[in-house]
Every structure is written in C-alpha cells, then in structure tokens.
Amino acid sequence: MLLPSRFLALLLSPCLCLLLLTILPQPAEAEQAATVKGPVNIVVDGTETAEALKKVIDEVSGDNHPVSISFAPKPQATVASKVAEDVSFEGVFGLFVRGLREGWNAIPRAPQYLSDFAHWWQSAPESPRLLLYLFKLLVLLCISGFAGWLALRLLKSMGPALPTSDPAPLDQKLRPALARLAKDVAAVAVFIAVAWALFSHFFNPLAAEGKLTQQLIRVIPAIAAFVIVGRFLLSPGEPRLQLFMLPRAKRHFGILTAYSAITMVLLAVFVELGDEVSTASTTAGIFIVVTTLALLFRIWWFWDARHDISQVILSGAPEVGNPGVLRRLFAIATPWLLILISMLLWAIGRIAETLPDGEQLVAASSVTQVLVILIPILAVGASMLVRQRLIGTDPDPIPIRAALRTLMVKLSGAAAWLLGLLLLGWTWRSHLMESQSAEGLTVLKNTISILAVVVAAWALTSFLNALFRAYSPRAALSTDNDDHVVTATTVQTRLGSVLPILRGFTIGTVVGLTILLVMSQLGFDIGPLLAGFGILGLAVSFGSQTLVKDIVSGFFFMVEDAFRVGEYIDTGKLKGTVEKISLRSLQLRHQSGLVHTIPFGTLSSVTNASRDWATVKFSLRLDRAADIEKARKAIKKIGAEMQSDPEYGDGFMMPLKMQGVDEIADSAIIIRAKFTAKPPMASSIQREALKRIYVAFNKAGIEFASNAVTVRGGGQAEAAAATTSVQQPATVVPAV
After folding, report:
1. 298 in Cβ contact with 349 (< 8 Å)
2. What is the pTM assigned to this prediction?
3. What are the backbone dihedrals phi and psi of residue 734, each rounded to the nearest 5 degrees, phi first?
4. Strands 585-589 vs 607-608: parallel, antiparallel or unpaired
C-alpha cells in the first residue's frame, strides 16, 4: 500500500533539514572566510606574454592575496604519442632496434634477479623457508582444487544429454558443450574463491610470501581461461563434443595447457614482481628471455600443427572434398601467417620496452595473439552452425531461398569477423585515440569505407553465385550398353541457357564497380578513367563491327528463344547439340564428338529439332501375303506396352500406332507407323519400337518382304540352266 504524499513529506523534512545544516557554512565560518585571504598560485606553460602575465599578477595582488608562480609540467609521452612522432618505417624500425639492443644488453644482468629475490624474500617481515612456502602453497592449491572438483561433480548430472551419433552435427554438440563450459567456469570460480579465502590463513599478506602468492592467484584466471576454452573447442576427454575438428586434439590441448601455465607463472614471478624485487634492467633481461622463449615455442607449435590446421580449413569447404583454389591457398598460408603475426607481436614488445607506458602495448599484443587464433575459429563455427540449421529445415529449397541461405551463411561468418575486428579495436582503443590526427582519421575513415564496400560486394557476389548455381540444371547420369556411367544431354530451360552470360555480366559489373569505388576511396580520380573507358568502348565498337554484329545477333537469338543448351539444331551447314552459349558464339557437339564453334553473326536460319514435341514416322515393308490386321494389332499392343514401361512411358505424348497401308509395291506391302514423343526421347523410343516390332512379327508369323529376284528363260538349253536367285535382306525405310 502506497503511503500518502503528505506523510512522506513529513518523514523527509527532517532529513532535508539535516542535510542543509551539514552543507551550509555557519555564520562565523562565513565571516572568517570573507576576511582571510588565501594564497593564489598562477600556473604558466611558457606561452603567455609578459604583459598578460603582469596584468594577472596585478589584479590578484590588489586583493591582498599572496601570489606564487609555477610552471606546468611537461606531459609525459605515451605509447601512441611517441610512435606518432615518427610513423615512418625508419622511425618504427629504429624503435625496434633500440628496444632489441636494450633487451640484449640486459640479458647478462638477468641472473642477478635470483640474488635480489633471495634478499627480498628475507626482508622484513621475514618469510619462511622456500620449501615450507612451497608446501603451504601446495596445500592451498590442493584444497582449492578439491573444492573446484567437488563443485564440478555436483554439477555433472545437470545439462542436456550428449549426442548419440559420432560424429554429430555441430548444432547437436553445441548445447552440451556450452553446458560443460558453464560447469567449468563455475568450478574455476569456486577454486579461486576458496584460494582467496585460505590465503590470509596460510600466508602473511605483508611479507614476500604473501605478495608472491597474490601474483600466483591472480594468474589462475588467465590459465583457467586457456584451459577452459581449449577444453570447450577440442574436448580431449569426450570426442563427441569436439567443436573444432582439429586432428590430434589431445596433443594440442596438452601443449596449450603447458604453454599457458608455464608462461603465466614465469611472467608472474619474474616480471610482475620485478619492480619490487630487482632493478628495471634486470627485469628487462628476464622479460626478453621469457618472451623470446615463448615466441620460439609458438613458432614450433604452429609448424608442428601446420598439416592439422590445413586439414581443418579444407574440411570446412561447402562442398566436402572439393575445396576451391582460394581455400587451398589459405590452408597452406595460414600456419605461416600465424608465425608471422607472432613475430610481429614480439617485435611490438621490443618497441614497447623503449616507451614510458609500454606495459599497455604489451598487454594489447598478448590479447591480439589470442584473438588472431579465436576469430577464425568463431567465424568458421558460425558459418557451419547456420549452414546446418538452414539445410535441416528444407533440404531441397527453391533457387531464391537457396541463394538467401548462402547469403545468410556468408553474413554469419562476416559478422564473426566484424566482431573480432571490434574486439581488436577495443583492445587497441587507447593507442588509437591518443595517436589520432587529421590524417589518421582520414585514413581510418577511408579504411572503414573500403571494408564496407568490399564486404557488400563479397556478399552480393556470393548471393548471385548461389542464385545462378541453384538455377543451373544438374547433369543427369545414365548408363550405356556396357554399364558405364555417362553424362546424359539435358535440355536446359531458357534461363538456364543464358545463365552463363548473365552470370559473367553481373559478376563482372559488381567487381568492376567495387574496384572503381575502392580506387575512389584511395584518392584516385576515376573521372578520367571512366572517360577513357568510354572512348575505348567507342573505338572498339567502330573497329570491331563483326564482333558487335555477333553480339547483337546473339542477343536477338536469345530474346526470340531460338535454341537452348541441350537442343539439337540445324544451322544449314552444321548440325549438332547446343553445348555452350557465350556472348558472341555458340558451340555445337556433333554425334561423332566434334565441336563446332559458330559466331552468331553467321547464322541466317536455325532449325530446332528438340522443341516441345517430335512426331516420328517410319515405314515397314511386309510380304504381299502378310495379314495387315494382325500387324496393326501387334503394333498397337507394342505401343501400349511401351507406354506402361517405366523407362519409355514418360517420353510418349501420343502412342505408337499404325497409320495404314502407305503403298503397294510389286513385291511388298508398305505400311506406315508413327508416334509422338518428347524430343530427347524420340530416337531411343524409335529404336526400341523397331526392335519389339521385329520380335513380335516373327512370333506372329508376319513375314517381311523379300527382295529376291528370279530369272527364268524359255527353251531346252535354258531349261537346263540353274535358276539364279539374289537374296537381299528386308529393309525398313523410315519416312518423315
């Protein structure tokens, strides 16, 4: 129930009065403040004129104020401002050489750290012996580790079940892997909480043992982050939950754990405590030794894992087993890129040693090393997850939906890359902000614009490629008489025939506009370039009239839909199946395998034998004594059987039947049969029909006409002569 407003005002009035009494000065204090004149300090930076400074001093001293003058301190150079003083290659390289020289000269002083550490360890308040300290530290870690293990055991039964299939899709492994990640984080949180709770009971915070233990406990989250992320991605103990399909996962997880633990502990003991234990030169020597050893370890690791990294990149191709050229090149170059980035970040560490606040630069370099590895993994994982989610909903979508799916997959990967770039920008934010200038802001703005144009062009190109690929017909497979699999000729749609031309034109247009926009952002004046292209196109049009004629003729052939890829045409001089249509010509495949390339400008007329339907008529020569009605019934029965045949039935548009007697010759009766079928199937149906008619007529006793010629002569001499008979096989004469 809400209190009335008047009651609330009564409750708040004493509080407001008490607040005013504490804030407002008392009358005596106000009078004292009015009479006492405090000193005035004038801070100058050396840019003021003498007249202006004298005027200010006279005004202040006129009120009986003591006056003092001090100079403003010169601002200390930061990392970004120091580098911004000389952004040339010589300047940056000079800083690197200087840092490398200082670190190299400090290496001989690194062993001094051990004696300084012993002196610091025995300083007041004195710490216990090192063995006793290690024993207490081991007890603390064991108790904390047991608490974390117990928390992990209690949370083990919670979460979704593991996938049953192995290997399982990424979307099925993600939820159990995330649940295990949450359990690991909770166990590490319990471990750290118990360690901090036991810290004050085991160690003296003011002594050296307490300060060292604090540094060791502070690096536990960093070590745990490496181990947890590695376990989340590689899953060495449970292969069914492995998200990042890196070969030899157990080996790489062990290397990652050892690298993170050793590196973090060395940095905590020898670097973080360096300012308190020893001198800066001694710490610098230890720092360059530790970072150089870590660099050599990373180089060996990337070199050892080069084949595994390449295999992971190749396995992420959309078409498994058929990666593209760019993906193969990227798979080969990625290990070398990782080695190069590690060396560059190590060089930045050498530059940081010459700068006043170089610790920030070193920290940014360390985070960058981690992000360089995690960002590609995140991008590939996002693309695979979206691809599996979308393909599972509809395995055979319409072309526009398939293109949109491809676009979403590409954009998911691009979003992961952009997120990684934002993280990198946030990591280097202080250095970028401090070093910004008018020129730097212009370069940054142009870089962002170029990236936006390139990403937009890449997304549009991916969408168009997927759309054209979805509309392109797949080649059908058939078997020949020897059971060899061959590619069957498929008549494409009108859109499928002109797709190569449209694809080349649209992709070329997008790429060309992208290049022009990028050149414009880089500062090039593209106006004269466009004018030059216009003049060049005009010159080509005048000088290549035949080419223009071919292109224009081909355009109108396509508009009129005169032929398509896969159709059999007759150009008057050449015949064949249309195999390819380009911008200026078409290619015909002859039955013998020859390929004819014909410019469109040379085509005067085109006869298409594969459009819509084809009526095939053929004649049969029967013996004069054959039963025509029996032959008609046999042909009709064969036509019905072939219509019900699953191999030939779909090709019929009108059944096989006998039209009647076409001609009565001296030695034969010629009948005609016909059928109507789809053009690609007409010839095969005719051959099968003739084979069945021959078998059926033989079984029914219907004889084909014989072309035997008998010569007889009169008289006694001729009667004794042998009768000569010339037998010729019966022929089937097709008629159109």
Report:
1. no
2. 0.61
3. -75, 145
4. unpaired
